[in-house]
């Protein structure tokens, strides 16, 4: 199930960027569309979380390190940037560049064991990384003019 869900989410991400870009064109711009996306997403997550009947101990929040709250900043940066860039780059180019960046970042974070057990880089991972970067370049084709 995990592999299928991850694949399905991957299919939805470019659609999210296109929907948000469309909302931005129809309303008050990409930043507003990103804010609307986060607001709707927050409401959905709140209902889902409450439906799960969580045990909530407010004192536990005081023990969380400051940096643990920064994931939302990264999420907001991604959604706002994707909303702004998808009309300029296209969905395929945007997602290819994001995936290539995610893979490079993930390999580095794994190698150094940032926030989880260390998983050293090996030749197979480097080969996979290079294949993804090559694939992204073939889709994005930065050597061609935008007119194609």
UniProtKB/TrEMBL annotation:
Keyword line: Membrane, Transmembrane, Transmembrane helix
Domain of life: Bacteria
Signal peptide coordinates: none
Bilayer-crossing regions: 31-52, 64-86, 92-114, 126-143
Presence of keyword Membrane: yes
InterPro entries with a match to the protein in the record: YdcZ
Keyword Phosphoprotein: no
Pfam families, per database record: DMT_YdcZ (PF04657)
Protein name, per record: DMT family transporter
The organism of origin for this protein: Pseudoxanthomonas putridarboris
């Amino acid at each position: 199930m995990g592999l299928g869900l991850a694949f399905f989410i991957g299919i939805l991400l470019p659609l999210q960027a296109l929907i948000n870009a469309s909302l931005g064109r129809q309303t008050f711009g990409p930043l507003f569309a990103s804010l609307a996306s986060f607001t709707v997403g927050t409401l959905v997550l709140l209902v889902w979380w409450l439906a799960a009947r969580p045990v909530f101990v407010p004192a536990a929040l005081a023990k969380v390190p400051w940096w643990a709250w920064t994931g939302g900043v990264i999420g907001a940066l991604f959604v706002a940037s994707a909303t702004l860039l998808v009309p300029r780059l296209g969905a395929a180019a945007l997602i290819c560049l994001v995936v290539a960046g995610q893979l490079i970042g993930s390999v580095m974070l794994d190698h150094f064991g940032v926030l989880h057990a260390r998983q050293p880089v090996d030749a197979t991972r480097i080969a996979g990384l290079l294949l993804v970067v090559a694939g992204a370049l073939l889709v994005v084709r930065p050597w061609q003019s935008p007119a194609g």
